[in-house]
Amino acid sequence: MHWSFPFKFVMAWVLLLSVAGCSRTNVLPTSQIVDTQLPRPEWVLITNFDVSSAVIKENEGFFSKDDDPLEDDRQLGYEVADVLAGELMVKITEMGLKPMRITSSTPTTKDSIIITGHFVNIDEGSRPRRNVIGFGAGKSFLDCAVIVSASGDFGVREIMAFDIHIDSGNLPGFAIMGPARMAAGAGMRAVVTSNAAMSGVKSYKSASTQLAVGLAEEIADELENYFTQQGWIHQNPAE
Question: Reduced to 3 states, what is the DSSP secondary structure of residue 31?
Fold first, then answer.
């Protein structure tokens, strides 16, 4: 099969931009019990992370006046927390454990792991700045604290905690890349749309809810490593 020069040019930019624009994460462990001496949990209980104390900022334009209704901010926070919990359900299931979503008032069952946390920042950033300027201008980001606890005859105790940050990265904007990025962006959208259609991946509208999907993956990686160390699950050798 022979590819035309324009197609190869676009695909080269797709590869370059996908690497340059990948979201960035940072995980800071705050506590961990190395050897819990606990049996494999019957359930992994997942709560919606608290957003009541988070600093939430809706999408900003070039001349933002910060006049978005407070209710919109709250709604964005609830959506991000809901997406994160839903994605964690999927990830925990893939580990071979049994997840269950609960509320803060749900009684915890014995021999369970409980995943709770709270958001510190939920920032939509500025879509115009990301699209036109890029290189981190107008980036969206999430900051949250994650607490993993265990329940047993001893009650409930914390076994692991970490802070985590994720942002939208430093993709160049239209003003820098011009037609090349627009062409590559079109190719990227086609690839992403095709992959999503084939895999059944959900589509989320806001930048923050999209980042929540990546956040769930990073949290799941931390959990998988820890659960493997405890002997509760066996990691795929290919990972």
Answer: strand
Q: Rg of the chain's alpha carbons, rounded to an integer?
A: 20
Q: Please name the helix (run of DSSP H) or strand (run of DSSP E) that holds residue 223, with its range, or none.
A: helix 207-229
- Two structure tokens written together for 75: 């709604």
Measured between alpha carbons, how far is 66 from 167 in angstroms, rounded to an integer? 21
> Residue 86: which H helix or E strand, with range?
helix 70-94
Mean pLDDT of 1-20: 46
For domain 25-170+202-229, the question of CATH label 3.40.50 is answered with: yes
Q: For the segment 105-138, what is each residue's pLDDT rounded down to a tens digit?
A: 888 888 999 999 999 999 998 764 444 444 445 6
Average pLDDT, stretch 189-195? 33
In whole angstroms, give the CA distance from residue 108 to residue 45: 8
Per the listing, tokens 């910060």 go with 66
Q: How far is CA 214 from the centre of its chain?
A: 3
